[in-house]
Amino acid sequence: MMSYDEYMRSVIQPMRTELTSAGFEELLTPDDVETKFENMKGTAFVVVNSVCGCAAGLARPAAVYSVQNSEAKPDKLYTVFAGQDKEATAKAREYFTGYPPSSPSFALLKDGELVYMMERHQIENRPLEVIASDLMEAFKKHCG
């Protein structure tokens, strides 16, 4: 019989793969986050992944579409998984100054400083194309 943890990993894995197969690097521990975010040079697009329906139907597809179709691209693509890699997610959120925890959400960092944030309430109930367009505008403004 499969344990709960094994079951959850099997259910969650496709949600992780949707981003990693598009070039996002998973940050699984607080040390991973600190290593990538401290002394950061350039831009990093961070997706706070989640198991919720708006992550599946809107956030992940919009994130993938925007990085694949934007002329201006972030230098690095990272993801943390809220509710799964709790400590890594909490560490990443320390960099999202002025914003409460929100998942899914998107953050754009430049030289380690938050320059753009899209919270869950800005993702839910909005067309995927509008979300992706907003992300690509942020890339255009802050990347390159």
From TrEMBL:
<comment type="similarity">
    <text>Belongs to the bacilliredoxin family.</text>
</comment>
<protein>
    <submittedName>
        <fullName>UPF0403 protein YphP</fullName>
    </submittedName>
</protein>
<dbReference type="InterPro" id="IPR009474">
    <property type="entry name" value="BrxB/BrxA"/>
</dbReference>
<dbReference type="Pfam" id="PF06491">
    <property type="entry name" value="Disulph_isomer"/>
</dbReference>
